[in-house]
Each structure stands twice: as C-alpha cells, then as structure tokens.
C-alpha cells in the first residue's frame, strides 16, 4: 500500500509539471510591439518634430546672434585692456569684402601684430555702423559692399570701419557709436557706446 501511494504522488507530480520543452516555449512568449504599433509611434514622433522644428530653429538663430554680440563685446574689453597694458592704440576692425572682423594693434615698432586675431562672420548676418552723435551712417557689413569710417596713416586697415581704443583705454573719436547686428530672421541687437563713453554695452533696443 505504501508503494502505491508513492507511485500515485509521483504520477501527480509528473502531471503537474509541463514537459521541459513546453516550459521553454512558455518562457519565450512575452509582451512585444507589433509592426502597426511601431509605425504609429514613428508617425507621432514625426508630427511632434514637425511642430517643434520651427521653434528650435528660431531658438538657435537667436543664440547665434547673442553669441556674436557677446563675442564683439568681449573683443572691445580685450582691446581696451591691451591698449592700456601695452601703451599703443588697438583697433577692432570690420571687413565687408571678406565678412570678417578682428582685433589688431596699430603698427608701431613692428609692422605685423603677432597677437592679432580675426573671426569670420556668418554670411546670413549683417552689421551696420552708426554714429549717433552726428547722424552719420557708416554702412553695412555682410552684403558684400565696402564702407569707410575715415582713414588712418598708421593703420593696417585704413579704409575699413573700426572701433579704435587709445593707450589710456578710452574710445577714440570717430569710432562708431553703435554697432547694429541683424540676424537671418530679422532679429537684431546693438553694441552701443555707454553714456559715459568709456566702454561698449549690449542692448536689445536702439535707445
């Protein structure tokens, strides 16, 4: 009788467990995505990107304009500091033909400035120069046209508009009172001479 009971319990245990092959097949079955669900998700993502792309483009264009304005402001600070420390005039020049601008000391003992730096301007961006003290308009940089703001016999860029810093760190007469930066989408910023005429500052409006 004891032997029969052991066989019966073994039979029950064998019937309760599925075969090893069936257990492996059960483990392989799980939740997943169908092709239709994947296509639906991709479609939703494409629609979301189409709505957010213009806003992102405007954001990056605005950041590019802001970056350009801040780089120009940094160059004015660097030009003033160098003019004071080295005791010679330094100019921030703008080249319309090559869509470039840079910082360079006026030639003194050396005809070539080893510390001169230059930057390329975005071809889609424009820079205008204005002298608000007498209403003069120095022209536009970025349209391929040249413009002048007077000439200097001791300058490597005599026929280009420039901001000139004197050895005492002050801004020389004849330098633009305002530099107007215009982005590709019409957004604009101003780099303007402060009221005390000691340095330049960034403004979002021409006032």
Overall description:
This protein has about 210 residues and is an alpha+beta fold. The chain has a domain at about 65-205: minor pseudopilin epsh fold, CATH 3.55.40. The chain has three helices and nine strands; from the N terminus they run αααβββββββββ. The chain has helices at about 1-15, 20-30, 35-85, and strands at about 90-95, 100-105, 115-120, 125-130, 135-140, 160-165, 180, 190-195, 200-205. A five-stranded antiparallel beta sheet has the order 5-4-7-8-9, with helices on one face. It has a four-stranded antiparallel beta sheet with strand order 3-2-1-6, with helices on one face. The protein is elongated.
SSE inventory with pairings:
Blueprint lengths: L1 H15 L3 H9 L6 H52 L3 E6 L4 E6 L11 E4 L5 E6 L4 E6 L20 E4 L12 E5 L5 E6 L6 E4 L4
Mean pLDDT metric:
74
**N-to-C order of helices and strands:** HHHEEEEEEEEE
What would you call the structural class? Answer: alpha+beta
Low-confidence residue ranges = 132-153
In short:
The protein contains three helices and nine strands. It is of the alpha+beta class and 207 residues long.
Notable traits:
single chain, about 210 residues, alpha+beta, minor pseudopilin epsh fold, about 35% helix, about 25% strand
């Amino acid at each position: 009788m004891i032997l029969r009971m052991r066989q019966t319990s073994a039979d029950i245990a064998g019937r309760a467990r599925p075969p090893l092959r069936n257990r492996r097949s059960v483990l392989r079955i799980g939740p997943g995505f169908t092709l239709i669900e994947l296509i639906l998700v991709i479609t939703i993502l494409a629609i979301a990107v189409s709505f957010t792309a213009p806003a992102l483009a405007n954001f990056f264009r605005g950041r590019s304009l802001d970056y350009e304005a801040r780089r120009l402001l940094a160059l004015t600070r660097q030009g003033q500091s160098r003019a004071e420390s080295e005791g010679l005039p330094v100019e921030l020049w703008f080249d319309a033909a090559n869509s470039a601008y840079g910082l360079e000391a006026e030639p003194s003992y050396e005809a070539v400035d080893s510390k001169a730096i230059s930057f390329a301007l975005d071809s889609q961006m424009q820079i205008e120069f204005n002298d608000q003290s007498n209403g003069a308009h120095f022209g536009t940089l970025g349209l391929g046209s040249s413009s002048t703001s007077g000439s200097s016999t001791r300058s490597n860029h005599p026929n280009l508009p420039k901001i000139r810093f004197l050895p005492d760190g002050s801004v020389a007469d004849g330098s633009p009172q305002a530099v107007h930066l215009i982005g590709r989408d019409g957004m604009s910023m101003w780099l303007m001479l402060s009221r005390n005429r000691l340095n330049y500052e960034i403004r979002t409006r021409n006032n």
